[in-house]
Amino acid sequence: MKLASLWNPKAKQWADGRKRFFEKLSISLENLPNGNTTIWMHCASLGEFEQGRPLLEKIRARHPHVKIILSFFSPSGYEVRKDYKGADLVCYLPLDTASNAAAFVTSIKPTLVLWVKYEFWLHYLQELKRKSIPVLLISGLLQNANAFYESYRKKLFACFTHFFVQTEASARKLAAIGFSENVTVSGDTRFDRVIEIAEAFEHIPAVAAFCSGHKVLVAGSTWTEDEEELTHYVRVNPDIRFIIAPHEVDEENIKDLQKEFPRSVLFSALQANPLYDNIVSTPGRPAEPVQNNEVVNTLIIDNIGMLSRLYKYADITYVGGGFGESGLHNILEAAVYGKPVFFGPVYHKHFEAIELEDAGGAISIENALELEARLKKLWEDENLLKEKGNAAKQYIYANAGATGYIIDYIYKNRLLTS
Questions:
Q1: 3-state secondary structure at position 163
Q2: Residue 394 has what pLDDT?
Q3: Are 39 and 68 in contact (CB under 8 A)?
Q4: Which domains does the chain have, with CATH numbers?
Q5: CA–CA distance, 308 with 330 (Å, rounded to integer)
Q6: CA distance 173 to 195
Q7: Which has fewest Cβ within 10 Å: 75, 84, 162, 234?
Q8: Alpha carbon distance 1, 8 (integer Å)
């Protein structure tokens, strides 16, 4: 990581964020009250934080004086949530060494530890076990183990007090190596989180104006492979409004998107320039030429943090990651609003994508031609569009409640008592 930091901005953030870590941690802890019950939640990145967040916020609401420490492994999680008001302290997780683990756990003195999804760091887990500090795995998901991981599984898993897993398949994997008594198939807390977001929805006026009076497709968390599948369709359908929220919003990627989608306007420009607002927001007539005699039909989101609200404005949604090794991104954020969800062919490690497709709320596609054909069918059949949207929403609400299982366990076992 230190070597990569010489040319990779994310690696540089990863390395810089850990410089003089314990010195900075000590200063931060001095400003926190002593003696309170301390909950430590650790997340790999932003997606895992969103899974743990419903639980964290329910605990905070019921116990406002509990001290909450939130750690991240990845800069993409830390940088976005370093000012999160629901925690007393947000920090990086120091590298997993025996000395770092001992120093960190001794410094923060957690009463209860919540780790999300598949964060398995051996030295930290062993240090917590040595100090008899309860550790819960939240929304756990066990994938097929690689050879390195295989030899450490029992050591790692023996350190957890209880596993709350997303699927029966994960529970079977645990049972096969001797862990069944302390396992609950609770589902995925992300369902609870996306419902919270949808029910507290706040409009984005500039986006509402852009979409007004038009059919709308929102493509979220897209990578280059996803955008390639959309390019032709966007260019030949000037009357449909497209919102593209790429996974990477660095300047270089945004410039590439502007070249790929010449009939586009950036969200930052739409907010800042009233002229753009007049051009793109008048229903009932075609958009006027703006650049290179092209008409605006695409809004490119050049910030982070809006995506979960953007899907509300869609008639149809597309979620990226299904055409590459990055992995399919969060389809639940789109489905909760009752919108059909499209994604690429690489999704079989994501149980929610399989189940949503089976429920009729999602459509996987292999290429641009199939995408265009399936979109055409939905646009032309309003009843089918509504049916698929309803199926998506029903699937989300039918799978809510994972947070409640975990809260009940915490209270039943008095884990908030120091």
A1: strand
A2: 98
A3: yes
A4: 4-187+401-412 (3.40.50.11720), 202-398 (3.40.50.2000)
A5: 9
A6: 29
A7: 84
A8: 9
Distance CA(248)–CA(105), nearest Å, equals 34
Distance between CA atoms of residues 276 and 260, nearest Å: 20
- Span 351-391, pLDDT tens digits: 999 999 999 999 999 999 999 999 999 999 999 999 999 99
Query: How close are the terminal C-alpha atoms of the chain, in Å?
Result: 37
pTM confidence score: 0.84
Residue 296 makes CB contacts below 8 A (sequence gap 6+) with 263, 264, 265, 276, 279, 280, 287, 290
Quickly tell me which residue has 């039909």 as its tokens. 297
Give me the sign of the Cα torsion angle 173, 174, 180, 184: negative
Q: Please, is 413 exposed, middle or buried when counting C-beta atoms within 10 Å of its C-beta (0-12, 13-18, 19+)? A: middle
Distances (CA, A) of 119 to 2, 41, 139, 211, 402: 22, 11, 11, 40, 18
